[in-house]
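Protein modeling request. Please complete all fields; requests missing the sequence field cannot be processed.
Requester role: graduate student
Desired output: 3D structure, token encoding
Chains: 1
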Amino acid sequence: MKSRKIFSIVLLIFSTLIWGSTFTLVKSILRFITDFQLLFLRFGFASILSVFVVIKYRKLLKNPKIFLFLFALGVSLFIAYTFQTAGLKYTTPTKSAFITGLYIVFTPVFSAMYLKEKPRNFEIIALVLSFIGLLYLSQINLRSLGSINFGDILTLLCAISFAFQIVLTEKLVKDLPSLLVTSFQMVVSFILSIPFAFLNSTFNLNTFVFISTLFLGVVASFFAIQTESFALKYIDSTEASLIFILEPVFAYLFSFFIFGEKLNVYGIIGSILILTSMFIIAIYNRE
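Delivered output (287 residues):
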């Protein structure tokens, strides 16, 4: 069990690396298609794989309770991606990154309320370090937080939805196949995106958009979220949320190698604090 837990952490770090690499890609795709068209293609490609899994486990879906829980999970994932994208239209990327990162605060709260899992001392320390590190990395001006706009509210809902998705995933994978938990989310998100994707009459599907959304769907969605579902069988949701906070660190690294963007002293301090929280998690899991 200990080896599986360590393997799960490694898998989550790899998935977070994948998610961190998608920011520049998504930004480029949105030059050609709308937000919902991107979600439609992304989850559409993911659903090509997912539909076979859903059919395989269709007998489990005849249980109304299981179906409703899985549907709620899919809705929470769709809402999280939708609010995050829409929020960026009204707020700055820096504030968006900081507010989205608040799921590291909401996740242990939901976990304590819903799963009766209270954060352990080492997790509390890691949470505080990650939160401060995220604050430095995002370079938020705390004085500006008083001017909350519509985009900030949408992004906050995104953070809450991501936290709920993590906690509910942990609950469901204890009793259900992780592939089913992942696949049902993909299918639900795809179905929900359909009516919104065609509100705009134009759909500029070129080669770049096709290949890019194929990667987002198969690798960054199906594979990465399947990794999350598998890992949450062996680690708790609070630990997972701490690992996911590495996403902005990886995003900065990709931006550095692709665009030559350099971190200032605050970004370096933030990255060190976040990596320190990961080190604390790693040390604990060796005991």
